[in-house]
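Quick question: what would this complex look like in 3D?
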Amino acid sequence: MDVTQEQIRDNVNTLMAGVFQLPIADVPADLAFGDIPQWDSFGHMELMVSLEDKFGVEISTETITELVNIPAICAYLEKLSH
Amino acid sequence: MSEEHKPIQVTYREVVEADFPTIAAMYAELNRFFYSTGYHLPQPEDVGQAWLDSFRRTLGRFSYVLVAEMPNDAGVPYVIGYILARIKRTPPYMGGVLVGELSDEWIVPEARRLGVGEKLSRLALDWLREQKVHSVEIQVLNVNDASWTLFNRMGFQLEFRMARLLWDEYIENPEPS
């Protein structure tokens, strides 16, 4: 079953809020690497592990370097869901 | 070969959860050493646990801890040291690549000068190379000449110096140089 874009965005927002310990309301749609202190060089790797666990994927090294904002993460997950 | 000349058998393996209290205690020792050399950041209360929490979530995927063991007098192996290797992503303005970092290496005093630190470092580098990181970084305390000598001998090159300004030591009007 395909997951809707809205469901993916909701899931990503929830995951972001959990990983970076933010209220969901404080997760902007375009949040990017470096926008908040928590999303730094190591925070990024924690986020990648959480994405892998949540969505059951193994993210390649190349993709890890590209998933640097919420739109890119959502686009990647949408592509996987089809 | 006489007992006193018998070589000490050191073995190396990946950390398991049962090691966490031991390596957290070792990190606390290392952290105390930092402060004994003039490190100035605030000291957390449960520093060993805070340190574990900082990489536990990514352990086995983007972070890796190796421990060294040697037998005690009864022949039972016990942990004599560890090293932490982590992978991070540099910001886009610094290349946007995956970089490895070796940090927080500690060897108990009775096991120093046996080459354990170098072996742990090289095994951790092997893991980082398998992860295809662009390069590997280390931070060495300014007073730790022995550690720097080791890493320099392994090929690490100094790129920049890190320093800290404390406001009560701020010199606003220095003498002209």
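Answer marked as accepted. The beta strands of chain B are 11-14, 63-71, 77-89, 98-107, 136-138.
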